[in-house]
Amino acid sequence: MQQPFSRRTFLSSSLVAAAAAARPQWSLAQSGSARKPNVLIILADDLGAGDLSCCGGKDIRTPHVDSLFAAGMRMSNFYANCPVCSPTRAALLSGKYPENVGVPGVIRTHPNNSWGYLLPSATLLPALLKPAGYATAAVGKWHLGLKEPNLPNLRGFDHFHGFLGDMMDDYNNHRRHGINYMRLNDKEIDPKGHATDLFTQWACEYLAGRKGNDQPFLLYLAYNAPHTPIQPPPEHLQRVTDREKDITQKRAKLVALIEHMDDGIGKVLAALKAAGLEENTLVVFTSDNGGDLPPGAFNGPWRAGKGTLYEGGIRVPAAIRWPGQVQPGSQCDRTSLTMDVVPTVLQVAGLAAADDLDGRGFLPALKGQAMKEPPRDLFWGRREGGGMFKGKTIECARRGEWKVIRSRPGAELELYNLAADPYEKQDLAGSEKDKLAEMAKVLADQLARYAKVPWQAPG
């Protein structure tokens, strides 16, 4: 049975103590190596803000992801760039608002139900890292295009081993609409096994192959889990039901799928260490959007979930571990978005970020230093089909603690003050007319900028 959520930091004291003991002489000067740091980005799919044991989940055990929070920095105000898959992935790899690179909605197999097209002109993180000599690999879910020019190997990745499509209809046969989207680079493959296990295995194999190689690398590992269909291996489900006597079957299946992914992440982290790469690798962990409520996700106290622009749809768990640079058990309260990862990684690699990026790097904050940066307005949106959207959008803007949101296409704007009302219970649109007008203009101006960017494939 799900227990109440508290807003305090859920770091196990034993985990923090273990991390500190492992590196008792922590200091910024301890990085030592002149080699550029490796980068490992791990992205979960539909993981709720509370669906980790270190983030308030009382019926779930995620020791390996918890260890990243304990040995690194918790990003306590981290947001996905969109409440659904493709746009956040576009932001994660481009450093821009997804609408600015042509991906306002989910990219799908059938053109009449596909709501984005990654601009061929957009330069992605693996290509941006090339001047610093990085080898680049992507393992797992791509979801940014199914054919040229938007295939991983054509967008900067030296190596791709994974799934091109969106969700899998079955974790064990890896099809979508009956189509096999599993690839090893440009070769169609048909491996056997649960997709989570395959992605874990392929990431481990890549890391083992890096042993003894001084060339820095970027490994982008994107799991399908815990996206629907909720298909945990039977032994994981049995473990959960044996342990959690009051849990519902629906919730037990989701918990088991997340714990299965956590086991896989543990194997990847072990492979990183076995290859002698742990001490010089920045590890980023987060999710592409908030948890999906119908299958039983837990988004903590935040309103709603996946697909919506309320806090539960866009607030996500995030942690960054970097031995010798990021203090174990630390916390950053800066409001950050997925798109901020790109300029931060470029800073880590010693590269200057392009002026046209929408994201802002936060390397000083990672190192525990105060950051002086001008305030910025923040934006989220989603384009979708179906009976509610009909190809239209929902959108929201944030300025400071004020948030304006259109929760349904064509609906009246809602207004919230997140400082006074973080759980979005009181719509102030009727009582704060001047602020509503200000925020409506902020949002309208951004939508006008987006309108200039094509989001459909040519022809």
Q: What helical percentage do the residues reach?
A: 25-40%
Average pLDDT level:
93
Structural class: alpha/beta
Largest sheet: 10 strands, mixed
| Gyration radius from CA atoms, angstroms | 21 Å
Low-confidence stretches: 1-33
Reported by name, the CATH topology of the largest domain is: Alkaline Phosphatase, subunit A
Strand content: 15-25%
The H/E string reads HEHEEHHEEEEEEHEHHEHEEEHHEHEEEH
Q: How many domains, as an integer?
A: 2
Tell me the distance between the termini. 52 Å
Sequence of strands across the biggest β-sheet: 9-8-5-4-10-1-11-12-2-13
Q: How many β-strand stretches? A: 18
* Shape call: globular
Quick one: CATH superfamily of the largest domain? Alkaline Phosphatase, subunit A
Quickly count the helices: 12
> In the CATH hierarchy, what is the architecture of the largest domain at level 2?
3-Layer(aba) Sandwich
CATH class of the largest domain: Alpha Beta
Task: Describe the protein's architecture and organization.
This protein is of the alpha/beta class. 27% of the residues lie in helices and 17% in strands. It folds into 2 domains: 13-19 and 35-366, Alkaline Phosphatase, subunit A (3-Layer(aba) Sandwich), CATH 3.40.720.10; 378-450, Arylsulfatase, C-terminal domain, CATH 3.30.1120.10. It has 12 helices and 18 strands. It has a 10-stranded mixed beta sheet with strand order 9-8-5-4-10-1-11-12-2-13, with helices on one face.
